Amino acid sequence: MSEETNVVRRKPVSPAKLDAVDRRLLGLLAEDATLSYADLGHNLRLSPPAVHERVKRLRHDGIIKGTVAVLNGAKIGRPLLTFVHVDTTSWAVTRHLLALKELPEVEEIHTVTGESAMLLKVRTKDTQALEDLLERIHSIEGFKGTRSYIALSTYLERGPSPVLSA
Amino acid sequence: MSEETNVVRRKPVSPAKLDAVDRRLLGLLAEDATLSYADLGHNLRLSPPAVHERVKRLRHDGIIKGTVAVLNGAKIGRPLLTFVHVDTTSWAVTRHLLALKELPEVEEIHTVTGESAMLLKVRTKDTQALEDLLERIHSIEGFKGTRSYIALSTYLERGPSPVLSA
DNA sequence: CATGAAAAGTACACCTT
DNA sequence: AAGGTGTACTTTTCATG
Protein backbone atom coordinates (compact mmCIF):
# COMPACT_ATOMS: atom_id res chain seq x y z
CA MET A 1 0.00 0.00 0.00
CA SER A 2 2.42 2.69 1.17
CA GLU A 3 5.55 3.39 -0.81
CA GLU A 4 7.92 1.92 1.72
CA THR A 5 9.95 0.14 -0.88
CA ASN A 6 13.25 0.07 0.98
CA VAL A 7 13.74 3.72 0.19
CA VAL A 8 17.29 4.22 1.28
CA ARG A 9 18.13 1.46 3.65
CA ARG A 10 20.89 3.35 5.43
CA LYS A 11 19.71 2.04 8.77
CA PRO A 12 21.11 -1.48 9.04
CA VAL A 13 18.07 -3.73 9.03
CA SER A 14 18.81 -6.52 11.42
CA PRO A 15 17.54 -9.87 10.20
CA ALA A 16 14.57 -11.10 12.18
CA LYS A 17 14.70 -14.26 14.20
CA LEU A 18 12.75 -16.82 12.22
CA ASP A 19 12.35 -20.45 13.05
CA ALA A 20 12.01 -23.23 10.50
CA VAL A 21 8.22 -23.07 10.58
CA ASP A 22 8.25 -19.32 9.96
CA ARG A 23 10.42 -19.84 6.91
CA ARG A 24 8.25 -22.60 5.53
CA LEU A 25 5.20 -20.41 6.09
CA LEU A 26 6.83 -17.48 4.33
CA GLY A 27 7.79 -19.74 1.46
CA LEU A 28 4.21 -20.88 1.03
CA LEU A 29 2.80 -17.36 1.19
CA ALA A 30 5.44 -16.01 -1.19
CA GLU A 31 4.17 -18.51 -3.75
CA ASP A 32 0.46 -18.26 -3.09
CA ALA A 33 -0.99 -15.85 -0.61
CA THR A 34 -4.56 -16.97 -1.27
CA LEU A 35 -4.12 -20.12 0.80
CA SER A 36 -6.41 -20.19 3.81
CA TYR A 37 -5.10 -20.52 7.32
CA ALA A 38 -6.67 -23.96 7.37
CA ASP A 39 -4.69 -25.02 4.29
CA LEU A 40 -1.50 -23.54 5.65
CA GLY A 41 -2.09 -25.15 9.01
CA HIS A 42 -2.60 -28.50 7.40
CA ASN A 43 0.68 -28.15 5.56
CA LEU A 44 2.59 -26.98 8.63
CA ARG A 45 0.81 -29.22 11.13
CA LEU A 46 -0.52 -26.23 12.99
CA SER A 47 -3.99 -25.10 13.94
CA PRO A 48 -5.51 -22.25 11.92
CA PRO A 49 -5.28 -19.77 14.81
CA ALA A 50 -1.64 -20.67 15.32
CA VAL A 51 -0.95 -19.89 11.68
CA HIS A 52 -2.92 -16.69 11.98
CA GLU A 53 -0.85 -15.67 14.97
CA ARG A 54 2.40 -16.19 13.09
CA VAL A 55 1.23 -14.35 10.00
CA LYS A 56 0.08 -11.44 12.12
CA ARG A 57 3.50 -11.26 13.75
CA LEU A 58 5.34 -11.52 10.43
CA ARG A 59 3.22 -8.73 9.00
CA HIS A 60 3.61 -6.53 12.04
CA ASP A 61 7.37 -6.97 12.02
CA GLY A 62 7.53 -5.97 8.37
CA ILE A 63 8.91 -9.32 7.28
CA ILE A 64 5.86 -9.62 5.07
CA LYS A 65 5.83 -6.20 3.39
CA GLY A 66 2.48 -6.74 1.72
CA THR A 67 0.30 -8.97 -0.37
CA VAL A 68 -0.03 -8.13 -4.04
CA ALA A 69 -1.52 -9.44 -7.25
CA VAL A 70 1.13 -10.30 -9.83
CA LEU A 71 0.13 -9.20 -13.30
CA ASN A 72 1.12 -10.60 -16.66
CA GLY A 73 3.15 -7.85 -18.32
CA ALA A 74 2.46 -9.00 -21.85
CA LYS A 75 -1.28 -9.34 -21.35
CA ILE A 76 -1.68 -5.87 -19.90
CA GLY A 77 0.07 -4.43 -22.93
CA ARG A 78 3.71 -4.29 -21.83
CA PRO A 79 5.49 -7.17 -23.55
CA LEU A 80 8.90 -5.52 -23.71
CA LEU A 81 11.08 -5.81 -20.61
CA THR A 82 14.32 -3.83 -20.51
CA PHE A 83 17.07 -3.19 -18.00
CA VAL A 84 18.51 0.29 -18.40
CA HIS A 85 21.86 1.28 -16.96
CA VAL A 86 22.01 5.03 -16.48
CA ASP A 87 25.23 7.04 -16.25
CA THR A 88 24.89 10.08 -14.05
CA THR A 89 27.09 13.13 -13.91
CA SER A 90 26.50 13.90 -10.27
CA TRP A 91 25.17 12.17 -7.20
CA ALA A 92 22.59 14.88 -6.69
CA VAL A 93 20.14 13.09 -8.92
CA THR A 94 18.12 11.68 -6.07
CA ARG A 95 15.51 14.38 -6.48
CA HIS A 96 14.94 13.40 -10.09
CA LEU A 97 14.46 9.79 -9.18
CA LEU A 98 11.08 10.65 -7.74
CA ALA A 99 9.98 11.81 -11.16
CA LEU A 100 10.72 8.39 -12.62
CA LYS A 101 8.53 6.72 -10.03
CA GLU A 102 5.52 8.37 -11.58
CA LEU A 103 6.04 6.58 -14.88
CA PRO A 104 4.05 3.34 -14.99
CA GLU A 105 6.66 1.74 -17.25
CA VAL A 106 9.30 1.96 -14.53
CA GLU A 107 9.21 -1.00 -12.15
CA GLU A 108 12.50 -0.74 -10.34
CA ILE A 109 14.99 2.00 -9.53
CA HIS A 110 18.32 1.19 -7.88
CA THR A 111 21.58 2.99 -7.39
CA VAL A 112 24.40 0.54 -8.06
CA THR A 113 28.14 0.08 -8.01
CA GLY A 114 30.09 -0.19 -11.24
CA GLU A 115 30.41 1.96 -14.35
CA SER A 116 26.79 3.01 -14.34
CA ALA A 117 25.36 4.62 -11.25
CA MET A 118 21.72 3.70 -11.70
CA LEU A 119 19.79 0.71 -12.85
CA LEU A 120 16.19 0.73 -14.01
CA LYS A 121 13.84 -2.11 -14.82
CA VAL A 122 11.24 -0.91 -17.26
CA ARG A 123 8.37 -2.60 -19.09
CA THR A 124 6.97 -0.97 -22.20
CA LYS A 125 4.40 -1.52 -24.92
CA ASP A 126 7.02 -1.60 -27.67
CA THR A 127 10.41 -0.31 -28.74
CA GLN A 128 8.87 3.05 -29.58
CA ALA A 129 7.66 3.47 -26.02
CA LEU A 130 11.11 2.46 -24.79
CA GLU A 131 12.70 5.06 -27.02
CA ASP A 132 10.32 7.72 -25.70
CA LEU A 133 11.25 6.75 -22.18
CA LEU A 134 14.98 6.90 -22.90
CA GLU A 135 14.52 10.33 -24.43
CA ARG A 136 12.83 11.52 -21.28
CA ILE A 137 15.66 10.15 -19.16
CA HIS A 138 18.28 11.84 -21.29
CA SER A 139 16.40 15.11 -21.01
CA ILE A 140 16.66 15.03 -17.24
CA GLU A 141 19.47 17.07 -15.79
CA GLY A 142 22.27 14.98 -14.38
CA PHE A 143 21.61 11.93 -16.55
CA LYS A 144 24.36 11.44 -19.09
CA GLY A 145 23.95 8.25 -21.05
CA THR A 146 22.15 4.92 -20.99
CA ARG A 147 22.83 1.35 -21.98
CA SER A 148 19.81 -0.88 -22.51
CA TYR A 149 19.51 -4.63 -22.23
CA ILE A 150 16.29 -5.97 -23.69
CA ALA A 151 15.00 -9.21 -22.21
CA LEU A 152 14.50 -11.86 -24.86
CA SER A 153 13.10 -14.52 -22.55
CA THR A 154 12.33 -14.57 -18.87
CA TYR A 155 13.03 -17.89 -17.22
CA LEU A 156 12.44 -16.93 -13.63
CA GLU A 157 10.88 -13.95 -11.90
CA ARG A 158 9.99 -14.10 -8.23
CA GLY A 159 10.47 -12.28 -4.95
CA PRO A 160 12.95 -12.82 -2.09
CA SER A 161 13.05 -16.40 -0.88
CA PRO A 162 13.05 -17.27 2.82
CA VAL A 163 14.77 -20.59 2.16
CA LEU A 164 18.12 -20.96 3.86
CA SER A 165 21.02 -21.59 1.51
CA ALA A 166 22.85 -24.88 1.56
CA MET B 1 1.66 -21.57 -7.66
CA SER B 2 2.87 -23.31 -10.82
CA GLU B 3 6.15 -22.28 -12.39
CA GLU B 4 4.59 -20.58 -15.39
CA THR B 5 6.88 -17.61 -15.11
CA ASN B 6 6.81 -16.56 -18.74
CA VAL B 7 9.15 -19.43 -19.54
CA VAL B 8 10.00 -18.68 -23.14
CA ARG B 9 7.35 -16.39 -24.41
CA ARG B 10 7.87 -17.40 -28.01
CA LYS B 11 4.13 -17.53 -28.54
CA PRO B 12 3.07 -13.93 -29.10
CA VAL B 13 0.87 -13.12 -26.14
CA SER B 14 -1.86 -10.89 -27.44
CA PRO B 15 -2.81 -8.19 -24.97
CA ALA B 16 -6.19 -8.77 -23.39
CA LYS B 17 -9.05 -6.41 -23.89
CA LEU B 18 -9.36 -4.49 -20.66
CA ASP B 19 -11.72 -1.64 -19.98
CA ALA B 20 -10.95 1.27 -17.69
CA VAL B 21 -12.57 -0.43 -14.69
CA ASP B 22 -10.48 -3.56 -15.22
CA ARG B 23 -7.31 -1.48 -15.22
CA ARG B 24 -8.27 0.41 -12.12
CA LEU B 25 -9.12 -2.87 -10.41
CA LEU B 26 -5.78 -4.39 -11.42
CA GLY B 27 -3.99 -1.31 -10.16
CA LEU B 28 -5.63 -1.62 -6.77
CA LEU B 29 -4.91 -5.35 -6.48
CA ALA B 30 -1.31 -4.92 -7.65
CA GLU B 31 -0.80 -2.62 -4.68
CA ASP B 32 -2.81 -4.46 -2.08
CA ALA B 33 -4.47 -7.77 -2.76
CA THR B 34 -5.92 -8.02 0.74
CA LEU B 35 -8.65 -5.50 -0.05
CA SER B 36 -12.09 -7.05 0.25
CA TYR B 37 -14.50 -7.14 -2.66
CA ALA B 38 -16.62 -4.73 -0.66
CA ASP B 39 -13.76 -2.23 -0.42
CA LEU B 40 -12.87 -2.65 -4.07
CA GLY B 41 -16.51 -2.29 -5.03
CA HIS B 42 -16.82 0.88 -3.04
CA ASN B 43 -13.81 2.30 -4.82
CA LEU B 44 -15.01 1.23 -8.28
CA ARG B 45 -18.72 1.87 -7.68
CA LEU B 46 -19.55 -1.75 -8.20
CA SER B 47 -21.26 -4.39 -6.08
CA PRO B 48 -19.07 -7.02 -4.42
CA PRO B 49 -20.28 -9.82 -6.72
CA ALA B 50 -19.56 -7.69 -9.76
CA VAL B 51 -16.00 -7.19 -8.53
CA HIS B 52 -15.71 -10.87 -7.82
CA GLU B 53 -16.87 -11.65 -11.32
CA ARG B 54 -14.19 -9.43 -12.85
CA VAL B 55 -11.44 -10.77 -10.64
CA LYS B 56 -12.43 -14.32 -11.51
CA ARG B 57 -12.24 -13.49 -15.19
CA LEU B 58 -8.88 -11.71 -14.85
CA ARG B 59 -7.49 -14.71 -13.00
CA HIS B 60 -8.86 -17.21 -15.45
CA ASP B 61 -7.44 -15.29 -18.39
CA GLY B 62 -4.01 -15.24 -16.76
CA ILE B 63 -3.92 -11.46 -16.55
CA ILE B 64 -3.56 -11.91 -12.81
CA LYS B 65 -0.82 -14.53 -12.62
CA GLY B 66 -1.16 -15.01 -8.89
CA THR B 67 -1.36 -13.41 -5.50
CA VAL B 68 1.81 -13.46 -3.42
CA ALA B 69 3.23 -12.18 -0.17
CA VAL B 70 6.11 -9.77 -0.71
CA LEU B 71 8.93 -10.39 1.73
CA ASN B 72 11.51 -7.98 3.08
CA GLY B 73 14.81 -9.23 1.71
CA ALA B 74 16.93 -7.69 4.47
CA LYS B 75 14.78 -9.04 7.28
CA ILE B 76 14.84 -12.60 6.00
CA GLY B 77 18.62 -12.46 5.89
CA ARG B 78 19.35 -11.35 2.34
CA PRO B 79 20.33 -7.68 2.53
CA LEU B 80 22.58 -7.71 -0.51
CA LEU B 81 20.91 -7.27 -3.90
CA THR B 82 23.03 -7.72 -7.01
CA PHE B 83 22.45 -7.76 -10.75
CA VAL B 84 24.80 -10.17 -12.47
CA HIS B 85 25.49 -10.00 -16.19
CA VAL B 86 26.68 -13.36 -17.44
CA ASP B 87 28.70 -13.89 -20.61
CA THR B 88 28.00 -17.21 -22.23
CA THR B 89 30.08 -19.06 -24.77
CA SER B 90 27.19 -20.78 -26.46
CA TRP B 91 23.47 -20.49 -26.69
CA ALA B 92 23.03 -24.05 -25.53
CA VAL B 93 23.04 -22.99 -21.92
CA THR B 94 19.30 -23.20 -21.51
CA ARG B 95 19.61 -26.56 -19.83
CA HIS B 96 21.87 -25.10 -17.16
CA LEU B 97 19.44 -22.31 -16.43
CA LEU B 98 17.21 -24.81 -14.71
CA ALA B 99 19.98 -25.47 -12.20
CA LEU B 100 20.07 -21.80 -11.24
CA LYS B 101 16.35 -21.81 -10.52
CA GLU B 102 16.98 -24.13 -7.62
CA LEU B 103 19.14 -21.57 -5.83
CA PRO B 104 17.06 -19.51 -3.43
CA GLU B 105 19.36 -16.52 -3.91
CA VAL B 106 18.39 -16.25 -7.55
CA GLU B 107 15.24 -14.22 -8.12
CA GLU B 108 15.30 -13.52 -11.80
CA ILE B 109 16.83 -15.10 -14.88
CA HIS B 110 16.60 -13.42 -18.27
CA THR B 111 18.35 -13.79 -21.58
CA VAL B 112 19.10 -10.35 -22.92
CA THR B 113 20.50 -8.44 -25.87
CA GLY B 114 23.83 -6.67 -25.60
CA GLU B 115 27.33 -7.72 -24.64
CA SER B 116 26.20 -10.12 -21.98
CA ALA B 117 23.76 -12.83 -22.89
CA MET B 118 22.17 -13.41 -19.52
CA LEU B 119 21.05 -11.28 -16.66
CA LEU B 120 20.44 -12.47 -13.11
CA LYS B 121 18.92 -10.74 -10.14
CA VAL B 122 20.28 -12.30 -6.97
CA ARG B 123 19.81 -11.56 -3.29
CA THR B 124 22.39 -12.86 -0.83
CA LYS B 125 23.27 -12.82 2.83
CA ASP B 126 26.57 -11.03 2.26
CA THR B 127 29.42 -10.56 -0.17
CA GLN B 128 30.79 -13.98 0.73
CA ALA B 129 27.56 -15.65 -0.34
CA LEU B 130 27.66 -13.62 -3.55
CA GLU B 131 31.20 -14.78 -4.22
CA ASP B 132 30.18 -18.38 -3.62
CA LEU B 133 27.35 -17.96 -6.07
CA LEU B 134 29.60 -16.41 -8.72
CA GLU B 135 32.02 -19.29 -8.29
CA ARG B 136 29.22 -21.75 -8.90
CA ILE B 137 28.19 -19.87 -12.03
CA HIS B 138 31.72 -19.83 -13.37
CA SER B 139 32.02 -23.54 -12.77
CA ILE B 140 29.05 -24.22 -15.01
CA GLU B 141 29.91 -25.21 -18.52
CA GLY B 142 29.14 -22.52 -21.07
CA PHE B 143 29.36 -19.62 -18.65
CA LYS B 144 32.40 -17.49 -19.36
CA GLY B 145 32.51 -14.39 -17.23
CA THR B 146 30.35 -12.17 -15.08
CA ARG B 147 29.98 -8.51 -14.24
CA SER B 148 28.21 -7.64 -11.03
CA TYR B 149 26.33 -4.51 -10.07
CA ILE B 150 25.58 -4.29 -6.39
CA ALA B 151 22.52 -2.29 -5.41
CA LEU B 152 23.35 0.46 -2.94
CA SER B 153 19.80 1.71 -2.48
CA THR B 154 16.49 0.60 -3.86
CA TYR B 155 14.11 3.46 -4.56
CA LEU B 156 11.35 1.53 -6.27
CA GLU B 157 10.48 -2.12 -6.64
CA ARG B 158 7.08 -3.20 -7.90
CA GLY B 159 5.40 -5.36 -10.51
CA PRO B 160 3.94 -4.55 -13.93
CA SER B 161 1.52 -1.62 -13.87
CA PRO B 162 -1.82 -1.73 -15.68
CA VAL B 163 -1.90 2.07 -15.96
CA LEU B 164 -1.98 3.34 -19.52
CA SER B 165 0.91 5.62 -20.44
CA ALA B 166 0.27 9.27 -21.18
C1' DC C 1 -5.48 -25.01 20.77
C1' DA C 2 -10.55 -24.99 20.67
C1' DT C 3 -14.58 -22.30 20.26
C1' DG C 4 -17.72 -19.09 18.24
C1' DA C 5 -19.14 -14.55 16.55
C1' DA C 6 -18.31 -11.45 12.75
C1' DA C 7 -16.94 -10.78 8.22
C1' DA C 8 -15.80 -12.05 3.80
C1' DG C 9 -16.20 -14.97 -0.23
C1' DT C 10 -19.22 -17.16 -3.52
C1' DA C 11 -23.43 -19.02 -6.01
C1' DC C 12 -27.76 -18.03 -7.87
C1' DA C 13 -31.93 -15.87 -9.58
C1' DC C 14 -33.55 -11.66 -11.23
C1' DC C 15 -33.25 -7.25 -13.37
C1' DT C 16 -31.48 -3.61 -16.40
C1' DT C 17 -29.18 -2.08 -20.62
C1' DA D 1 -26.90 -11.50 -24.58
C1' DA D 2 -23.84 -9.35 -21.29
C1' DG D 3 -23.05 -7.72 -17.18
C1' DG D 4 -24.82 -5.82 -12.87
C1' DT D 5 -27.57 -6.22 -8.40
C1' DG D 6 -29.45 -8.20 -4.10
C1' DT D 7 -30.11 -12.10 -1.33
C1' DA D 8 -28.83 -16.24 0.72
C1' DC D 9 -25.52 -19.58 1.94
C1' DT D 10 -20.74 -21.19 2.89
C1' DT D 11 -16.16 -20.54 4.27
C1' DT D 12 -12.67 -17.98 6.44
C1' DT D 13 -10.95 -14.77 9.59
C1' DC D 14 -9.82 -13.61 14.06
C1' DA D 15 -10.63 -12.49 19.17
C1' DT D 16 -11.59 -14.75 23.47
C1' DG D 17 -11.14 -18.15 27.10
Automatic annotation (TrEMBL), chains A, B:
InterPro entries: AsnC-type_HTH_dom, Dimeric_a/b-barrel, Tscrpt_reg_AsnC-like, Tscrpt_reg_AsnC/Lrp_C, WH-like_DNA-bd_sf, WH_DNA-bd_sf. This is Lrp/AsnC family transcriptional regulator. GO terms for biological process: response to amino acid. GO terms for molecular function: sequence-specific DNA binding. It comes from the Bacteria. The lineage of its organism: Bacteria, Pseudomonadati, Pseudomonadota, Alphaproteobacteria, Acetobacterales. Residues 18-79 form the HTH asnC-type domain. Keywords: DNA-binding, Transcription, Transcription regulation. It holds the Pfam family AsnC_trans_reg. GO terms for cellular component: cytosol. The keyword Ribonucleoprotein does not apply.
